[in-house]
């Protein structure tokens, strides 16, 4: 236990002696993370439209059984995949006259069922906020068209149309600053330990007598590092 305490105290002495360097490096890395985030990462905007998936064949049913609920959930999951299909993508590209391939378009979209409900969110992420808004609403309309072609009836109802995003969804400046701060702190502490362990000079007379078990037969010149 005593040896562990001595080792920890030595580590703390190393850190305290180079505290200025640690602070400067940490601040520099944090500032670098902020500069990269603000000037070099293009902001992206996310727009979401919420649709309701219902089965009109059960429209007169007063109560719902467990089987009905399970059927609705599977139906929502199915429509989440249909929304990402090539058929829907091509319909959106055609209606909005987008200069995008199907692969590029599918890389912009995502779908997420809302828990165990009949609601489905269709999201579009783009560097153009107006484009994200237009594509999200057109996705819902195209899904309605494809639904009618597949089932002969439209069971997709647009609940909350997409709005023009007020601000970017990414990058997250605060998160990137926090990551930069942690990385800067870890890097600076590691650098301090590396510098100390690579320094083989004798700065303390006690090192000769205690660590090397040798008698001290000479005087060691005074150094400011010995007082740190």
The largest pleated sheet is described as:
4 strands, antiparallel
Number of DSSP strand runs? 4
Percent strand: 5-15%
What is the tally of helical segments? 9
Mind telling me the C-alpha Rg?
31 Å
Kindly identify the CATH topology of the domain at 45-57 and 64-160.
Alpha-Beta Plaits
Named at the architecture level, the CATH assignment of the domain at 45-57 and 64-160 is 2-Layer Sandwich
Q: Helix fraction? A: 55-70%
Strand order of the largest sheet: 2-3-1-4
> What is the CATH class of the domain at 45-57 and 64-160?
Alpha Beta
Derived structural class? alpha+beta
Q: Average pLDDT, to the nearest integer?
A: 84
> What is the overall silhouette?
elongated
CATH superfamily of the domain at 45-57 and 64-160: EIF_2_alpha
Question: What report would you give on this structure?
Answer:
By secondary structure, the protein is α+β, with helices and mostly antiparallel strands. Among the domains are: 49 residues; 110 residues, Alpha-Beta Plaits (2-Layer Sandwich), CATH 3.30.70.1130. 58% of the residues lie in helices and 12% in strands. It has a four-stranded antiparallel β-sheet. Strand 2 and strand 3 form a beta hairpin. It is a multi-pass membrane protein. Pfam families: Wzz.
Task: Produce a short descriptive summary.
InterPro entries: Bact_polysacc_biosynth/exp, LPS_length_determ_N. The protein is an alpha+beta fold and 228 residues long. It has nine helices and four strands; from the N terminus they run ααβαααββαβααα.
């Amino acid at each position: 236990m005593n040896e562990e305490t001595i080792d920890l105290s030595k580590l703390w002495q190393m850190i305290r002696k180079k505290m200025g360097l640690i602070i400067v490096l940490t601040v520099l890395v944090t500032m670098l993370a902020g500069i990269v985030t603000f000037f070099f990462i293009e902001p992206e905007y996310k727009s979401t439209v919420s649709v309701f998936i219902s089965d009109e064949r059960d429209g007169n049913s007063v109560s719902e059984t467990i089987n009905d609920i399970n059927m609705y959930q599977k139906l929502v999951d199915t429509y989440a995949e249909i929304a990402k299909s090539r058929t829907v993508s091509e319909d959106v590209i055609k209606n909005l006259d987008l200069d995008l391939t199907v692969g590029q378009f599918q890389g912009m979209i995502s779908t997420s069922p809302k828990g165990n409900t009949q609601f489905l969110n269709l999201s579009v992420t783009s560097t153009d906020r107006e484009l994200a808004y237009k594509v999200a609403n057109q996705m819902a309309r195209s899904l309605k068209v494809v639904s009618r072609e597949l089932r002969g009836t439209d069971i997709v109802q647009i609940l909350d149309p997409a709005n023009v995003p007020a601000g970017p969804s990414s990058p997250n400046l605060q998160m990137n600053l926090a990551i930069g701060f942690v990385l800067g702190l870890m890097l600076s502490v590691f650098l301090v330990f590396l510098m100390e362990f690579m320094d083989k000079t004798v700065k303390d007379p006690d090192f000769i007598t205690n660590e090397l078990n040798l008698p001290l037969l000479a005087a060691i010149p005074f150094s400011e590092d010995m007082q740190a």
